[in-house]
Amino acid sequence: MIVAGIGSRRGVGVEDILAAVAAGMGGAGLPDQVPDVLATGPTKRGEAAIFEAGQRLQREVRVIEAEFLHAAEPRLLTRSAASQAATGSPSLAEAAALAAAGPAGRLLAPRTVCGPVTCAIARDGSGQ
């Protein structure tokens, strides 16, 4: 399972999210694929564009609770004081991707910054 973790500034558009997912997948060496799941954190519950992107991609969007984001922190590749202040996670995109991918999940690359959106791609332990 491939997970795209999403972080963003407030009020981003769906095209911003879709562009970040495409850039993240490309950066992870999967340019022609669509992730199986999108994931984000509780501070992004109100960001309609993330959920609209999930609808357009015909993929589930999982909101990962803070305790699971925190549990993923030792596996992060990127840390940002701005992300920590805004979301409570040093890399919301990476933490959400890792948490959704499960305890054996791993990041395929550091998060990608695409304008106002960050995207991190993780693969679960199954390798599929």
UniProtKB/TrEMBL annotation:
UniProt GO BP: cobalamin biosynthetic process
Pfam families found in the cross-reference section: CbiG_C
SUPFAM superfamilies: CobE/GbiG C-terminal domain-like
Database matches in InterPro entries: CbiG_hydrolase (IPR052553), CobE/GbiG_C (IPR002750), CobE/GbiG_C_sf (IPR036518)
CobE/GbiG C-terminal domain segment(s): 2-122
PANTHER family, per the entry: COBALT-PRECORRIN-5A HYDROLASE
UniProt protein name: Cobalamin biosynthesis protein
Provenance organism: Nitratireductor mangrovi
